[in-house]
Amino acid sequence: VIFEKDSKLEKLGYECFYNCPKLKTIEIPPSVTDLIPITSRTTYTPTSIISSCSELTTVTLYNSIKEMKTTEFSNCPNLTTINFYGTEEEWKAIKNKPTKLNSITVNFITE
Q1: Average pLDDT, stretch 46-70?
Q2: Alpha helices, H only, the chain
Q3: What is the distance between the alpha carbons of residues 31 and 29, in angstroms, rounded to a whole number?
Q4: What is the pTM of this model?
Q5: Is 43 left (phi over 0), alpha (psi -120 to 50) or beta?
Q6: What is the residue-averaged pLDDT of the chain?
Q7: Where are the beta strands (DSSP E) in the chain?
Q8: With 90 as the cut, is the pLDDT of residue 98 above it?
Q9: DSSP per residue over 90-108, as a string?
Q10: Is 41 helix (H, G, I), strand (E, B) or coil?
Q11: Could you tell me which residues are beta bridge partners of residue 107?
Q12: Which of 1, 56, 64, 77 has the most CB atoms within 10 Å of its CB?
């Protein structure tokens, strides 16, 4: 899934990409500032936007992301790469990054 570069999308909904077994890559547009799900009026606590995508291998994010849920990318066993358009310092400044990123390579892309 790749959104248009000039996308006006700002937020993604709860479990927007949940249990998408054929999803291999996703690029979140630079207009999105966090990976904290929008929820409707419900009693449950949202966990993540992208999870349980068994074939997901690559996620592309931009330095516009300032916060995530710690559960983001849970149950995505084949996720090996995050392409991050920004610096290592900007990556480190993101609040609440997922706790299970140790086996994932983060590529810092500065253009």
Answers
A1: 89
A2: 88-92
A3: 5
A4: 0.85
A5: alpha
A6: 85
A7: 17-18, 25-27, 34-35, 50-51, 58-62, 67-68, 81-85, 105-109
A8: no
A9: HHHTSBT--S--TTSEEEE
A10: coil
A11: 83
A12: 56
